[in-house]
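Narrative summary of target 7.
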Amino acid sequence: MGLLTGKRVLVTGGSRGLGRAICKAVATEGARAVAFTSLHGGGVESTQDIEAAGAEARAYQVSTTDAAATAQLVALLEKEWGGIDVLVNNAGVSQTLPLALIDEADFDHVMSVNVKGVFLTSKAVLRGMMRRKSGVILNIGSLLGLRAIDAPVHYAASKAAVHGLTLAMAKEVARHNIRVLCLAPGLLEDGMGKNVPEHRLKDFLEHCALGRAGTFEEVARFAAFLVSDRSAYTTGETILMDGGL
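Modeled conformation, tokenized:
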């Protein structure tokens, strides 16, 4: 018996990177069905590794900022699966730009994907969870939204907003037996971590107690634990996973 045996899971931004690792982790922990969204397409061939871990897998090309498409996808999964037990709001974007070079359009884009996307997807999924009086939402935040660290200001602002959304949603939906959490990783070896300038990477490693960057798999395994019943008394929290910075 895995941590998530029989659960139905939706992961946004699940075609690659951390989102993909989370899809595989929840499947390994016994999830019955895993669906993920992506802007990069993804057909049957992109689900094989998830299916190999033991779950039914589905891929959808849907933008989390498209309210109508998101609602339509959730309605489809509710009808065909009978419900969604776990939502992981992982989809996100970043730009490595100093404040002086961030245009209004840049700011709006990052905030739209990283904040509005979380709001729209959560709102769509919560309707079914509230009817069933059960569910878990895990928002993927960032160390950069919680600490005074040299980082793109629009990305840091968006992840700070995800922290706030987590607090407010957790309080509002707790009476429906729904948990809402935020997992905030520090520097990871792959993905956005590849774009960190050498001097910033050196500074991070000097101050990190474990002296290394984290991996997608480490974060994904912890995410699977947080959305499981083993973490049933945890809600409204933003959990830092930064190697001891």
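Helices lie at 17-28, 48-52, 67-81, 104-132, 153-173, 198-207, 216-226.
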